[in-house]
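Technical appendix A lists one of the benchmark inputs used to test multi-chain prediction within the project. The record comprises two sequence entries:
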Amino acid sequence: MNLLSIGISHNSASLDVREKMWMSAEDAKAALLQLKEKYFNEAMLVSTCNRTELYGLTPETKVDDAELKRFLIAFKNAEASVKLEHFYGSFSGGALSHLFKVAAGVDSMIIGDIQILSQVKEAFNLAAEAGMMGPVMNRLMQATLHVAKRVRSETSICEGAVSVSYAAVELASKIFADLAKKSALLIGAGETGELTMKHLVGKGIGTVKVANRTREKAESLIASFGVPGAVVDYENMAEGLRTVDIVITSVNSPTYVVRPADVQKVMKQRSNNPLFIIDIGVPRNVDPTCNKVDNVFVYDMDSLSAIVDRNLEKRKAELPKVTTIIREEVVEFFKWHNSLEIGPTIQELTAAIEAIRKQEVEKNINRFKAEDRELVEILTKRITNKILHQPIANLRNGAQNNGARGPETVNRVRALRDLFGIADKEKHGT
Amino acid sequence: MNIFTFVDVLVVLMPLLYAVLVAVYALSFFGAIPIIDRFKSSFLILTVVLHVLYLIARTAAFDHPPITTVFEIMTMLAACIAIAYTYIELRTKASNTGLFILLLAFVFQAVSSLNIKDLTELAPILRSRLLGFHVSTALLGYTAISLSAVYGFLYLMLYREIKSSRFGLIYTRLPNLEMLETMSSKAEIFGFAMLTVAILIGIIWLPRAFETFSYLDPKLVGTMTVWILYAVSLAAKRKLGWQGRKMMIVSLIAFGFVFLSMTVINMYMSGFHSFY
């Protein structure tokens, strides 16, 4: 197969290098249009903060991939910092399985990252806008999405929180049934604390409260979350503990801000409703012995990081399964792609027509006199050959003029296979 | 097929079906065979339907509903638990608790099948109309508190995993703590109400049916202990704000007494509540 890919990613270059190659949607589209003129019939370009990769289907003539790398560098005017060595490249099956890996999230910085799939989808959309999606690229898109879908449903490589803030939110949804009916209090305003609250808001937390030494800061934070909220007096924190279900502490303080005695007292007042305390402060804000109180769950940075580490290990353990899926799908894609070759298609078409002819002759041969039977054989053969001659000749000529792998030829082959119902073991639609 | 043969076959088949059902849910819980998730519900429904047919066949064959001996009651109870769980699974999609609940149904069915006798002759007392009410309320009550106990048990397992931040399959597969607690406490309240009615009917009916019974009979004492335990725990929940772990522990202890009262006391100790 004539698929070629070159790219630069966190595996091959540092952030300051690869950010020079980052392309906005407009950039990517403009680059694709230039590439169309020079090198490709069909192509797509995916660019995220961790990678910029180009996938293209070359015509008959070989494309020099160093030339493509130089083109991309020049396109971004990044000759000063980006060198050819920062790029990697692959061809045919290698390029195919690389794309599958990227879409499945196993080539990502955090293994099993699910954001990348939507970015890949977006890249295919851009390619379509630039008129670079031909029959093979379309098929490639379906196959890529299919791989990603299989990886998600058949492996658990995307499961389990892999950031501290998300791990906290996941725990919250294992303790509480409906976050919309719950409220959370953020004490202090560290970055991770804010992020955790944002994730909780994303999960639909009902109300947010913020306690901060400066009231204005608390007010502006609440406004930024965009859900119903209230400011709690920093000095009157116990009051906050009494009324909320989740507490995130992120305070810069040398001593514990929440102590077991406070918690015990508060639990009585709140008639033992479960209280989930996420202690993000370093040093810790919450005395760890608070966890001993019934219905109080305390998690600090250490225990949350331990969850993250464990989840990453679990994801890594799923890698072999993903590799198997990718291998299977590469084989499937090649099967489909091979069916686009002209030679085999002509052979199959001739065989199919011959089978029909033979069947009909056999069925009716007894109606003819014995001495005529050979003539019937010859006559029917001649008819089918004549019928087939023109389409086959046109197909071959077209391939010579438009390239055997050009979209024009591919479309004709596919139409032919489709119209004559030649077995095409397509697994996922057309 | 003759109806007696049908009953004889199902007596053996039912515990086997439940065993297979438990195995299916176990495989699904441990994620051994992913495809199994797709047809486990169908298999559950099949088992429940066969169980109901079995109960109907018994009623027809022996000319009384299977509610007169403790082993007849146990197969009824197994069926009720399975039906209640089927409803929960179809309603809430929380199918991962099935293993634990169906395990209980299996235990009841197995004990029943191993001991059940084909009785056609009934003691005249058991033809009383009050018995129907007594037994059906008791059955509903027992079903509810069995479910309450299983959910309580699962709550405690999950509670421990979250508290100690050691996450295993329980953490991955079970629904959240709040849901387990709600299920357990709703079932407990319903079960308690039903048991109260069953006990009241029993007490009204007893002096009429048995001339020689004593209020100190082990069955009566056992039942009253259970009732008081539930009453106290529900009062503690309301008045003292007991929630979560404490409530679940009480619920489990009370269920332990229920099980004892149904089995040991009924079989070996009771003066009046054994009828076979």
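Chain B touches chain A at residues 34, 158, 162-163, 165, 167, 171, 175-179, 182, 241-246 (CB under 8 Å). Chain B has nine helices and no strands. Comparable benchmark entries are summarised in Table A2.
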